[in-house]
């Protein structure tokens, strides 16, 4: 079975888009679940193992995958993910802004080079063990996402 919005002919897809919205901005659809995977450097295995050991001890935190990135969820809502050489966290916008100005290793989270919301920041550490110093920020992220209303 082909993509629901593309017409299929004997030789394959005709390329005629039948959807109500604009066609996807890419030529090839890689997955029906997520047709636009994030292009990123593969996360450092060290980061993932350290982050797993920190976060998966916390009740109700689950590891998963979001757009091809290793991600962490609380109540089925993503609060953190590993992206390239850093870890992205969702925090209140005021906290995120304050961190970007007060710490040189915190930058806006920009998956695929595009800005995300003001609530997302990326913490970059060369040494994966340094993420243990950020446990309070991870807990703040969990608390913030738990309290956020469902969209």
Question: What's the short story on this structure?
Answer:
By secondary structure, the protein is α+β, with helices and mostly antiparallel strands. The chain has helices spanning 45-55, 93-102, 135-147; strands at residues 6-9, 12-17, 61-66, 69-74, 77-83, 86-90, 106-108, 120-124.
Can you walk me through this structure?
The chain has 151 residues and is α+β, with helices and mostly antiparallel strands. 23% of the residues lie in helices and 28% in strands. It folds into two domains: 1-36, no CATH class; 45-147, Aspartate Aminotransferase, domain 1. It has helices at residues 45-55, 93-102, 135-147; strands at residues 6-9, 12-17, 61-66, 69-74, 77-83, 86-90, 106-108, 120-124. A six-stranded antiparallel beta sheet has the order 3-4-5-6-8-7. Strands 1-2 form a two-stranded antiparallel ribbon. A hairpin with a 2-residue loop joins strand 4 (69-74) and strand 5. The two termini are 31 Å apart. The relative contact order is 0.14. Mean pLDDT is 79; it is low at 26-43.
List keywords for this structure.
2 domains; alpha+beta; six-stranded antiparallel beta sheet; 23% helix
